[in-house]
Design brief:
Protein name: Aspartokinase
Enzyme class: transferase
Oligomer: single chain
Number of strands: 18
Largest sheet: 8 strands, mixed
Strand order of the largest sheet: 3-6-2-1-9-11-12-10
Low-confidence stretches: none
Helix content: 25-40%
GO molecular function: aspartate kinase activity
InterPro entries: AceGlu_kinase-like_sf, ACT-like_dom_sf, ACT_Aspartokinase, ACT_dom, AKii-LysC-BS, Asp/Glu/Uridylate_kinase, Asp_kin_monofn, Asp_kinase
Structural class: alpha/beta
Pfam family, one: AA_kinase
Number of helices: 13
Mean pLDDT: 95
Radius of gyration: 23 Å
Bound molecules: adenosine-5'-diphosphate, aspartic acid, magnesium ion
Length: about 425
């Protein structure tokens, strides 16, 4: 007998028929004798609707009330799934974050889980074979109010619960049947990977592959949670679906569990990036701190930073990216502090995309970046900025070329070939 966590995303619980299908996945594992905790998302589109309502009520609003509103989507699905399971004769009950409790920090809207007391859930596993249906995306903050974990946060709820109950496996069920070499919606030739290392998955997720929330991958890595990404749309009773060691899907695992390591494993992209350039910034010590300090204080996430060396030696150009949603906030801060920051002009551009090439094999191979640049040049795509790390190259381009760039990079490293 094992302990399992099964997480179902928004599309997988999009209507009652789909919730019934989810219940069949749960039943399969219960019938096999396993103890099961299920983590559910809000029904597809629900969270966006709730976020929209908060904005309509007031563009600037209390983050604690935002959490009270947006956490409700998951509460509905947890109750509906518990009802459906009960109807099938399975002992089940729903749990909201505060009832368990799942304790978070106080960062309403983007809280981090700090502690989960899973003892009552485990007691009910043992005493009455009860399935725990847990509302994802939410917990309780130190101020005793509901907190949400940031968009996509149900993945993190699932992995955290898996760590807390020492689960043998955490299955993330979604609308694709695994992690692909790139987003299959953009490149139909993308291939499903049998395995991907924690490090690579972390980069893929941080660089835009939204199949897993970044924090969930971090937690899986730290707590060594055996995590699979798999499809909820397959027939729950098809052969192999209940395979304990090798369920269909992609395993996120340690690097040394991967036998044949490719140089490049995947391509990720993130749309809605914006670029800001400050022209003729005074070239003196402390200038970067003067610019980026106030942006950080305002919670603006600055990403790619390029500083040119000036010809004259007394002034330089500073260019960096921010999420498009933060552009007006960032420019307002920079314009207000123009005198202290000492620059001549501010230019900005939105509608950009960051495409990234990811692979652990880059550590020991040269020429990976040059290949990317050549592939983009061959399609006439202009590069606006580049950043690299040990296992990734990120390139900023015009958003109109997103699909073209992703497919070009996917092809040039042979990711479409078996
Ligand atoms: P859920 O609602 O189940 O949490 P998400 O929409 O958050 O699902 O994540 C699944 C989506 O992630 C897929 O439909 C797919 O379009 C997208 N995606 C992006 N990159 C990848 C990738 N490399 N592999 C698989 N899916 C990806
Ligand atoms: N419902 C939340 C969202 O849409 C959390 C999740 O689905 O993971 O972001
Ligand atoms: Mg998701």
């Amino acid at each position: 007998m094992a302990r399992l966590v099964l997480k179902f995303g928004g599309t997988s619980v999009g209507d009652i028929a789909r919730i019934q299908n989810v219940a069949r996945h749960v039943k399969r594992e219960v019938d096999a004798g396993h103890h099961v905790a299920v983590v559910v998302s809000a029904m597809a589109g629900k969270t966006n609707e709730l976020v929209g309502w908060c904005r309509d009520a007031s563009p600037i609003h209390d983050a604690r009330e935002y959490d009270a509103v947006v956490a409700s989507g998951e509460q509905v699905t947890a109750g509906l799934l518990a009802i459906t399971l009960q109807k099938m004769g399975i002992n089940a009950r729903s749990w909201q974050g505060w009832q368990i409790p799942i304790r978070t920090d106080g960062a309403h809207g983007a809280a981090r889980i700090q502690e989960i007391d899973a003892s009552e859930i485990v007691r009910r596993f043992e005493a009455e074979e009860q399935v725990a249906v847990i509302a994802g995306f939410q917990g309780i903050a130190p101020d005793n109010r509901i907190a949400t974990l940031g968009r996509g946060g149900s993945d993190t709820s699932a992995v955290a619960v898996a760590a807390a109950i020492a689960a043998d496996r955490c299955d993330i069920y979604t609308d694709v049947d695994g992690v692909y070499t790139t987003d299959p919606r953009i490149e139909p030739k993308a291939r499903r990977m049998a395995r991907i290392s924690f490090e690579e998955m972390l980069e893929m997720a941080s660089l835009g592959a939204k199949v897993l929330q970044v924090r969930s991958v971090e937690l899986a890595m730290v707590h060594k949670v055996r995590t699979f990404v798999r499809s909820s749309f397959e027939d729950p009773d098809a052969p192999g679906m209940g395979d304990f060691d090798n369920p269909p899907g992609t395993l996120i695992c340690d690097e040394d569990e991967i036998v044949e390591q490719q140089v490049v494993t995947g391509i990720a992209y993130s749309r809605d990036e914006a670029q800001i350039s400050l022209r003729r910034v005074e070239d003196r010590p402390g200038v970067a701190a003067a610019i980026f300090g106030p942006l950080a204080d305002a919670g603006v996430n600055v990403d790619m930073i390029v500083q040119n060396i000036s010809e004259s030696g007394d002034a330089t150009d500073m260019t960096f990216t921010v999420p498009a949603g933060d552009l007006s906030k960032a420019t307002a801060i920079l314009e207000k502090a123009k005198a202290e920051m000492r620059y001549d002009a501010l230019q900005s551009e939105s509608g950009l995309t960051k495409v990234s090439v990811i692979g652990i094999g880059m550590r020991s191979h040269t020429g990976v970046a040059a290949t990317a640049f050549k592939a983009l040049a061959g399609r006439g795509i202009n590069i606006k900025a580049i950043t690299t790390s040990e296992i990734k190259i990120s390139i900023l381009i015009d958003g109109d070329y997103t699909e073209l760039a992703v497919r070009a990079l996917h092809g040039v490293y042979g990711l479409d070939k078996v």
